[in-house]
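Box 3.1 A note on notation
Throughout this textbook, protein chains are presented in two layers. The first layer is the amino acid sequence; the second is a token string describing backbone geometry. Keep the layers aligned when reading.
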Amino acid sequence: MELKSSRQGGVSHVVRRAVSLPVPLLLLAAAAVMAFLPACMTPRKGFIGETRLWEHKIRSGEVAVDTVLRQAAYGREELEREALRLGAQFPAGHAGVFTATSINGLYGNLQRQMQRDSLLQAAVRAGRDSRAVASLLESAGHYDRLLRPNPRLRRMVNRGNQAYGIPRGFLDKTHRYLLSPRVRQYAKEHLAEDFPHSASRGALVCYAFDREGDRANEAGYDMVNWFSGLFGNSVGTFNPEVRRPREQALLQKHVRPLDILLVKSPTHITDKFIPGFFGHAAIYTGTREELEAAGWWSLPEVVPFRGVSAAGGAYAEALRSGVRLSTPEDFTDGDFFLVLRVTGLSPAEKAATTGRIFRYITQKYDFNFDIQSPDRLYCTELIFLAFEMIRWRSHHLWNRETISPDELVWTALENGRIEPVVLIGPETEVLSPSPERIREFMGQ
């Protein structure tokens, strides 16, 4: 017992000494520890992960390494153009709103380059081809140079994006790979003499301090999301389920695929905490028959959700449980509805918009309500990203850029490309409502 007490006292003493250290020294200690993390990265392990299928194809000759190298070089040029365009909109330290086109373009290019990097990693694992290692290092260098210097881009990408297959902490992994002593040693032994073979310890420490700053930022970001989610989910459990067969029938009579729907549910407690008249927004994706008629049933993004669509899921909406396809019965849980239609879309634009909607199905709910970080989505954020051709109204709130359902309506009234289709209430059905009628309906 005495020995146990002595050990506890020793541990307690160490803890007291650690807590008494000045904060800068603690940060320096953390940075020193993180500076050595890249040591676990190796050329064979890389920063991609499992690549067995591609390794088999490369070993069998089904995929040629020379082809992979050309694709990777071309992909880096694509990514560079997109990242530079996005970074030029708002350089590091400058506030502003990234357009949905820029956000979608960045993630799309990043996803394609990650796929090419997977092939490069498979080539390394299949035969340790020195050209593949050099190309992977070049990819990591591109990510480092293009995305890491801008804190907004770095944090946005590091949060990950399930819809595009971007894992959380991706830029941190590529950076550690780039700085790994083992990778550098391999480069020194096998690659050209003019290749940079070493990373300074100062670069490692700077990375560690940057990462600690990002972690502090993310902790605050995640905390807000957690508390907001706790409040929303707690209050939302008291929302009564309402079935509106009349409104459901009217909606089904008027809606077409890609229509935007605004909903007002006065009986929902959560609706009272949303500023403005409307409290929710969704997109009508269409029935199986409508998707087949439009030629969208075979889109790669739609295929995984054919079963849900065939079972009646026709309304894409972001709920507290995440983004999902709801049936007409489940969706029509409100008293007032406004249907908007974006006009003048080409067949290619309609197909691309449909693909963007289905890509985000199953994404988690964004309780931060931040349209500039699509690792999670809330209802109007889904519309912002899907209809990237529209410049939606937004506002800055609590260090976030957000869009309220009412702002979708105000955008529609100002934008000639968006047509109000029908306004539905308990005793109302107004076809092609005028702006004045909509404002009156909303009590403006």
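The longest helix spans residues 201-236. The chain has two domains: 23-227, 245-441.
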